[in-house]
Amino acid sequence: MKISDIPQIAAWISEAGIATYELTGPDYRICLRRSVKARSRRAGSAGSVRDAAVPARGQPDVALSLSVGLFLHAHPVQEAALVEPNEPVAAGQPLGLLQVGPILLPVLSPRDGIVASIIAPDRSLVGYGDPLVALKP
Question: What is the span of the domain harbouring residue 120?
Answer without folding.
Answer: 46-136
